[in-house]
Amino acid sequence: MDSKRRVLIVEDEMGISNFISAVLTASDYIVIKAVSGKEALEQTASYSPDVILLDLGLPDMEGLDVLQKIRAWSKVPIIIVSARDREREKVMALDLGADDYITKPFGTSELLARIRTALRHMQPNGKGVADDAIIQIQNLSIDDTRRLVKIANTEIHFTPIEYKILLLLARHAGKVLTHDFIIREIWGPYPSENQALRVNLSNIRRKIEKNPAEPVYILTEVGVGYRMVEE
Ligand code: CA
Question: How far is the CA of 10 from the centre of ligand 1 (A)?
């Protein structure tokens, strides 16, 4: 059996589609292409790709409709390919079940990293969350059984809420989490105030980042949410 991963590229601009296709083929992926929403749905069904790159601006259908139609029956990782300044659209796509997004124009290494992350989050329980007892990211280690967080070898203390946020981001490392998702996960469906996330986040950064103004662990995705780096 062929162990190569199949990527479906849904993109109507040939230049972009060919560029992505060349990059992926060189990295040993099998590429399938669709130029419309209708084709995307057909090819998802007939080729069962391992990951889908979905451009939201398609000629025949709204990209978000394509996303919803696929999500109605498939858990395949979907990475949205979006234009700059479309934060609302990105948030909507993530809320509708997209796994991630990448903003045009993007570089080769960013594209490949996003695909690797999406594939990794599909394994092995398919829930997209690592359950490892100890999470190690650069110098940051989180031992959830002991609730112990260290930077290098120095123990760092967090409030219970700060710890929950840090652990949530770390368990989804590499993936962007929307503000709403984080708030729901931490405070439940009736959060007391929106400001709390930002305040807690800056406290966490003060404790783990050398320079909180230029974070290396928790990145801000402007207008969308936060992303913990993977390595
Ligand atoms: Ca397009």
Answer: 9
Three-state secondary structure call for residue 227: strand
CA–centroid distance, residue 57 to ligand 1 (Å): 4
Tell me how many domains the chain contains.
2
Rg (alpha carbons) of the chain, rounded to whole number:
19
Give the domain CATH number at 142. Answer: 1.10.10.10
Examine the pLDDT at 84 and tell me if it is beyond 90. no
| 6-10 vs 51-55, strand pairing mode | parallel
Task: Report H helices in the chain.
Answer: 14-26, 37-47, 63-71, 87-95, 108-122, 160-171, 179-187, 195-208
* CB distance 196 to 63 below 8 Å: no
- CA of 195 from ligand 1 middle (Å) equals 36
Distance in Å, CA 138 to ligand 1 centroid: 37
Quick: pLDDT tens for 30-42.
999 999 999 999 9
End-to-end CA distance of the chain: 31
Range with the poorest average pLDDT among 16-25, 154-163, 186-195: 186-195
Which of 72, 93, 122 terminates a domain? The answer is: 122
